[in-house]
Amino acid sequence: MIKPEIFDYTFGAYRKLIADFSVNELIPAEDEMVRAGAVPERLVRRMGELGLFAISIPRSYGGLEWNMEQQVLLTLEFTRASCVYRSRFSTVIGLCSQAILDHGTEEQRSELLPRMATGDLVTAFALTEEEAGSDAAHLTTTARHEDGSYVLDGDKRYITNAGWADAFLVFARTDPNEPGAKGVSGLIVDAASPGVSTSLPSRMNGHAEAPVGEIHLRNVRVPTSNLLGGEQGEGQGLTMALRGINHARLHVAATCVGQATRILEEIVKHVNERRQFDAPLAELGAVQAVLGECFAEVEAARALVLEGARSFDEGDVPRHRIAAAKLFASEMAGRVADKCLQLLGGEAIVGDHPIPRMWRDVRALRIYEGSSPIHQRNLALAMVRQGKVDGRLPNSYRV
Ligand SMILES: Cc1cc2nc3c(=O)[nH]c(=O)nc-3n(C[C@H](O)[C@H](O)[C@H](O)COP(=O)(O)OP(=O)(O)OC[C@H]3O[C@@H](n4cnc5c(N)ncnc54)[C@H](O)[C@@H]3O)c2cc1C
Question: Of ligand 1's atoms, which has the minimum distance to the CA of residue 128?
């Protein structure tokens, strides 16, 4: 349950609450989390109490209803701590709740969103399959009509929160005669349904404390009322998914900025304290060049993400700006992490310094929510297409 007084907080007070949570509880527990190989359950409960599952859900459905700019500002605070913590609620606030909010039936919204907001109903977003990763439209999980239900068969992989989610938003082919995007629908599947099982990988390179998992669906019977968007939702699954994906992409871009900010804070401490050649590393010109360059990179990504969030709040989902922000911010986080890792010398490889762990964790941010090459390709295709129409750029700022 969310602490009732939080509903009366101004945004400023709530942002301070989350910043303090990050500094006083999440960051100090990072080593404990790594040793345990899992996010401590007491912290997941605290995330629920503090409303972190609720930031994007409207008040009418029990959420805190912060706008996108505010959600991004909050993300910048809680992702100064390990980005692994975020993954415990990320699938609820972005991918799943937003698709349900924008495309679900009123019954689906009022049934699911209030429980999602408190963290009592954790949902995972199940799109990716072994043969359908970047090319998600060619997924092969099927949902066939049978006796007034859908019956699902297939396997999903790399699904965040698969191992502990209470329900999955599964994308499956409801029209076997339509091999592309138009044959795909979204279905809400109770994780406890007969025929559903999950498994976790034996090893993760990064994000090890919140591993992605596989979902196996064997003759899983789902009522037709669980079709996202009701009858009109049939064949609209990937369009509906994009609503959640665009939302989540901005959150991921903000996560990259939060992580890079923390990495810079940590490296400044290190170069001030570590002495070589009778002086702190911070006095070396080569080190200063890295610091200054990284600071400018983080600021640029921060501005880009906030600009994307403001456009989002103005109404239309500016998907090309969002893609650009995600592409730039995730590549930036990789560059910053790598340069700062170098400044640690042997500590980059030996010991418990947080930067090597973050360097490994941020690598995944260039792969999920659209890998960097996919964003480059999609942006280029949109530019060429738009250029042929009116000579402008996609999501043009021109008046
Ligand atoms: C930590 C993590 C969490 C995830 N969480 C979820 C989740 O919650 N739900 C979910 O459904 N999925 C999730 N995914 C899956 C993720 O979305 C996919 O990994 C991603 O879409 C890439 O698919 P793939 O891994 O099959 O790689 P592939 O599609 O095999 O692509 C491999 C690489 O090839 C390149 N490539 C592929 N196609 C093109 C192209 N047309 N042009 C140029 N380059 C190309 C890219 O560099 C790409 O990185 C997660 C993945 C990770 C790592």
Answer: 11
Residue 227 has φ and ψ, to the nearest 5°, of -70, 120
Q: Which residues pair with 144 in a beta bridge?
A: 151
Please name the residue whose Cα sits nearest to atom 47 of ligand 1. Answer: 373
What is the rounded CA–CA span in Å between residue 381 and residue 266? 39
128 lines ligand 1 (CB under 6 A): yes
| Gap between the Cα atoms of 69 and 285, Å rounded | 37
DSSP 340-384: HHHTTGGGGTSS--HHHHHHHHHHGGGTSSS-HHHHHHHHHHHHH
pLDDT band for position 317 (cuts 50, 70, 90): confident
**What confidence score (pLDDT) does residue 216 get?**
98
* Ligand 1 atom with minimal separation from the 366 CA: 49
**Cα angle for residues 75, 17, 86 (degrees, 5° grid):** 30
Question: What type of residue is 61?
Answer: Y
CA of 282 to the centre of ligand 1 (A): 38
Angle formed at CA 5 by CA 2 and CA 8, multiple of 5 degrees:
110
Amino acid at site 356: P
Written as one string, the DSSP assignment of 262-304 is: HHHHHHHHHHHH-EETTEEGGGSHHHHHHHHHHHHHHHHHHHH
Rounded-to-integer distance, Cα 133 and Cα 370, Å: 9
Number of the ligand 1 atom closest to the C-alpha atom of 126: 11
Across 105-132, average pLDDT: 98
Nearest in space to 254 (alpha carbons), one of 305, 207, 308 = 305
Burial (Cβ within 10 Å: 0-12, 13-18, ≥19) of residue 164? middle
* Nearest-CA residue for atom 16 of ligand 1: 368
The answer, yes or no, to whether any atom of ligand 1 lies below 6 A from the CB of 333, is no
Segment 326-369, tens digit of pLDDT: 999 999 999 999 999 999 999 999 999 999 999 999 999 999 99
In the annotation, is 65 catalytic?
no
Q: How far is the CA of 370 from the centre of ligand 1 (A)?
A: 6
Paired tokens of 179: 């091999």
pLDDT in tens, 269-299: 999 999 999 999 999 999 999 999 999 999 9
Cα–ligand 1 centroid distance for 346 (angstroms): 32
- The 10 Å CB-count burial string (b at 16+, else e) for 378-398 is bbeebeeebeeeeeeebbeee
Q: Is 377 in the pocket of ligand 1 (CB under 6 A)?
A: yes
